[in-house]
Amino acid sequence: MSLPHQILKRYWKFSEFRPHQLEIIEAVLDQQDCIALLPTAGGKSICFQIPALIKKGICIVISPLIALMQDQVKGLNAKGIKATALTNLDQLGDLERILDNCIYGDYKFLYLSPERLQNALVQERIKSMDVHLIAVDEAHCISQWGHDFRPAYRSIKDIRGLCPKATILALTATATKKVIFDIDEQLALKQSKLFKGSFFRKNLSYKTMIFEDKNFKIKALLKTNKQSAIVYTSSRRATQQLAQMLNLNGISSGYYHGGLSNKEKEHQYNQWISDKTNVIVATNAFGMGIDKANVSLVVHTDIPESLEHYFQEAGRAGRNQDKAEAVLLIGTNDIQNTKKWRIDQIVDVPYIKLIYKKLCAYFQIPYGELSEEKHGFNFDAFCTLYGLAKRKTYNSLKVLERHGLIVFEEYFKKKATIFFLVNHNTLQKSFEHNDKLRLIVTSILRTYEGVNSQETNIDIGKVAKTLHLNEDEIIENLNALDAKEIVRFKCGNSDAQITFIQPREDDRAINRISKVVSTQNKNKLKKIKAVIHYIENNSVCKSQQLLTYFDEPESMPCGTCNVCRENKGRSHNNFEKDNVDLILEALKVKPMTSRELVSNLSISSNEVIAILRHLLEVEQIQQSQINEFQIKCP
To answer: What was the pLDDT predicted at 413?
Structure first.
């Protein structure tokens, strides 16, 4: 047994690799820069984790997703593998400690975001690490032609100067030829090798259904589905409403969106992953890194923003290779509304300039100056003050963040800090005639260490829940202590935090990013049109449409999507029996693709495809992961 197989068996309990995994691992071990394009559920993380365990030194993993980094670190640690991540660091000391651990502590993996990689201290310490491999996850984010462009990815290539001997492995689940070329160029890969898994999913049936009463159809689909399911919807409110409706109809459901606290997200996820709830209703905040084998149905209640997003989300069904469905529900006005809504939400350069100026004015930042403090930010109040559309304003703030002008941190509970200023006796006297205050203070002292020595973050909601009080009562009592200078208590009337990264330069600041923003907007429009074309095209197999979009045109009709089902029986038997025999004889010699059959036999492309489709349906042949056809064993 080879060393990679031994490690796979020891840590992951698998006997065999998935397609392309071993080839990628061997190339990385040979110090070959690689691009791995493996579809959802292709097992990308093993491609860098196993080489990292074989080689001496540390592997740096660059990822845009904090939750995914934390999940992978947790999973590796549970296997006894030393891994850490530069996430949620409040103090400089935390950052230094983790970096020192990576230099001296025999750690195998360091996870960080591309933005964190730009930190001077991080770069300085990386120079002292024995880095043998750099894994760039979600590598499509480096390309302005990709569906999640993130400008900070463009700086990743600079890491080569910090650790010139390291191999680079770029990984993505969705990328067109144009994006792959961009990944190679922007990462400055050295004679890179491309590994591309097939996007064909023979067990997954794609269906688009026009249905006005979507809730009725969702209930019908879920009642016949005996295994786990995901329902994607576009709004946070809809996740809760739909989950509630399903529960009332006897379908056990949870909900998940980006606005939930980490604790609530973990609870909802654990209920679903352990099959305590059958259905999770979620926004697209849910799904990255989730590998649940028994999902047999994924439903989209709204039109997705791109085929890349749709393919990834739909691809979470059928990972156990059992038959599964991906259903996209369309209302009669959805396409018209999507065209208007999606296009209206694209923010152009003049609007971004407006938001940037209003933001600077809101915090009274003078022209040419940089305010480095973290500003509490009430998003609703900001939009109301200046009469701004909330969705477009939010999108503008995200653009400013992606391009490194601000840090925009969202949180969804009251952010509070406390510091006790007096000794124990004085504190006791402050609440000797106030039982409620005594309970509050005692609870905080027991729950949070260090409140007597430094300003400490506290969760007002957690304190309120523990004591069965409402949050306003907690805040009122702590404000009273603050007024008496017994504590220093701050509770922000904000739902976000803004930090400025660059000095205020108004139009000049935005002009530097205007070309990229305009290109991105054109790209978004193209992607919206591609989704609508996919929905409206009912003459070509849905699976074929998706495969063609991802530059895999030599594919067969799937036979199970709504288009194939409607076309079934129309033209299956209009071919010559001699041609059927020719194809069967050719496949007895060796497996072949449809293109190879057309090339080797004097049969038209259309007839070859029709015959192959018929032979698949009658189960005389089968199709492999790399789109080769072979005689089916009895």
So the answer is: 57
**Same-fold call for 339-412+496-526 versus 569-631:** yes
**What six digits make up the tokens of 515?**
């070309």
The domain locations on the chain are 3-196, 204-332, 339-412+496-526, 415-491, 569-631
Cβ(435)–Cβ(429) below 8 Å: no
3-state secondary structure 259-317: CCCHHHHHHHHHHHHCCCCCEEEECCCCCCCCCCCCEEEEEECCCCCCHHHHHHHHCCC
Q: Is the dihedral of CA 309, 314, 317, 321 positive or negative?
A: negative
Q: Does domain 339-412+496-526 have CATH number 1.10.357.10?
A: no
Q: Which amino acid is at 272?
A: W
- Fold observed for domain 415-491: Arc Repressor Mutant, subunit A (1.10.10)
Long-range contacts (CB closer than 8 Å, 24 or more residues apart) made by 457-462: 457/90, 457/415, 457/416, 457/417, 458/416, 458/417, 458/418, 459/413, 459/416, 460/413, 460/414, 460/416, 460/491, 461/261, 461/413, 461/414
Residue 446, pLDDT score: 87
Do the Cβ atoms of 438 and 431 come closer than 8 Å? yes
Copy the structure tokens of residue 355.
């938001």
> Can you tell me the distance from the alpha carbon of 606 to that of 595, in angstroms, rounded to the nearest whole number?
11
CA dihedral 220, 222, 225, 228 (to 10 degrees): 170
The per-residue pLDDT for 569 is 53
Distances (CA, A) of 449 to 266, 452, 532: 24, 8, 54
User: Which class would CATH give 3-196?
Assistant: alpha beta
| Residues of the chain with confidence (pLDDT) below 70 | 1, 41, 88-92, 289, 411-414, 492-494, 568-576, 634
- Residue 455 to residues 420, 472, 487: CA-CA distances in angstroms? 8, 21, 10
pLDDT in tens, 253-271: 999 998 787 778 889 998 9
Is the Cβ–Cβ distance between 406 and 500 less than 8 Å?
yes
CATH superfamily of domain region 204-332 = P-loop containing nucleotide triphosphate hydrolases (3.40.50.300)
The CA-based dihedral angle spanning residues 507, 354, 141, 298, taken in that order and rounded to the nearest 10 degrees? -170
Look at residue 130 in the predicted model and tell me its pLDDT. 95
Select from 3.30.420.40, 3.40.50.1010, 1.10.10.10, 1.10.3880.10 the CATH code of 569-631: 1.10.10.10
Q: Residue 54 and residue 48: Cα distance in Å, rounded? A: 10
Q: Is this prediction's pTM over 0.70?
A: yes
